[in-house]
Amino acid sequence: MKRILVIDESEVVRETLALILGSEFAIVKRPPHATEFPVADIRQVDLLIFGVTPQLGSETASLLRFAARLPFAVLFLVESKSIARAIETKADVACLTKPFNPYELHEKVGQLLARRAGFPATGYVKREHEAQDFSPYLEFPFLSRSVATMARRFAAAPLPLLITGETGCGQDRVASAISGPDQVSSLRLSINAAEVSEEYLVQKKLELSLHGDFNAAPITVTIENLDKGSPASQSLILRFLEEVSDRSAVLRYVTTANADLLERVYRGDFLEALYYKLAILTLKLSPLRERRDDIPALAEWLARDYGKKLKLTEPSLSSKLMRNQQFRGPDDLGVAQVYFAKNR
After folding, report:
1. Closest Cα partner for 299 from 342, 341, 335?
2. What pLDDT does residue 122 have?
3. CATH number, domain with residue 136
4. Mean per-residue pLDDT, 21-40
5. What is the DSSP string of 250-296?
6. For residue 283, what pLDDT band results from cuts at 50, 70 and 90?
7. Which of 18, 129, 173, 271 could pair with 137 as two cysteines, CB 3.0-4.6 Å apart?
8. 104: which strand partners?
């Protein structure tokens, strides 16, 4: 018998769905704010029916990313037709507007389950981007030599790490590189602090629950845009991390931010407990304008890298270009780009 997991904040909706579908399917009902989703409830799930609140309905991109990570079909219950139209319908995702017609519900469920046969089995599937080699981002010239050395040391230390720097310094890439060596054997969970809400963290909790016993493998939690989280979201993140740490024996945090969070702690604008939980180690990335001597080396690296991608003979930048006084800041990498285009 096919197994359907129903998650909705309304008990009436959960019971109604169970009443309509219960004669044909095994129905498991859960409120969205349950402290955990038992493994037995989700390991053999064929379809998730997820109630979308009006607040979460405006975050369509987040909903689609959530659905894309799940190894089973998803039916979103939405509050209005406008929200349903805003959510892109994919082969494994559909929407149903409340109040729903039982016949339309059966039709949607039948269509999604029919497509289910081609889906991968439930379990953690390593995504393509996780198999990439991020080591160049820990090497000069993407980072200064001193920062690259520190980054490699931090990569080997399983302690909470906060990576800060201005926009464009490559925090996300460095975070991926630092957590990269453990990607094969560990579970990665990504959180965007700018999008955090109770419903958003329910999705993350469900993602973790898909992988069963957390003690079986280490977990790396990456949190991006921490400085963009509201005071309310900061409290939600702290509570979520405490729940995860209670269930995992091996846990690592890698966090990125653009602002100086310690300064915000002193001003009372950032939650002190969250900062000290995530910033045992800190790594500050310098903007390229503060290390202009690195620009020629970076230009050469980019020319070689794109030469390989375009299957060209290895390009080289002339000594005249490398001495050119136009190399005065990040924007002047355009000089190298023009040179490269002319010498293809």
Report:
1. 335
2. 41
3. 3.40.50.300
4. 75
5. SEEEEEEESS-HHHHHHHT-S-HHHHHHH-SEEEEPPPGGG-GGGHH
6. very high
7. 173
8. none
Tell me which of 6 and 133 has the higher pLDDT. 6
- Kindly state whether residues 192 and 280 are assigned to the same domain: yes
Would you say 139 and 148 are in contact if contact means Cβ atoms under 8 Å apart?
A: yes
Q: How far apart are CA 294 and CA 298, in angstroms?
A: 6
Collect all residues with Cβ–Cβ distance below 8 Å to 156 and sequence separation of at least 6.
Answer: none
Is the domain of 149 the same as that of 9?
Answer: no
> Could you list the residue range(s) of the whole structural domain that residue 72 is in?
3-116
| Average pLDDT value for the chain | 77
Token pair recorded at residue 175: 């975070």
Return the residue matching tokens 């209005």: 80
* Number of domains the chain is built from: 3
How distant is the alpha carbon of residue 268 from its chain centre?
28
90 & 212 share domain:
no
Does residue 341 or residue 264 have the better pLDDT? 264
Interacting residues of 233 by C-beta distance below 8 A, sequence separation 6+: 193, 196, 197
DSSP type of residue 90: B
| CB atoms closer than 10 angstroms to residue 202 | 23
Mean pLDDT to the nearest integer, 125-140? 50
First to last CA, the chain: 60
Compute the distance between CA of residue 322 and CA of residue 306 in angstroms, rounded to an integer. Answer: 18
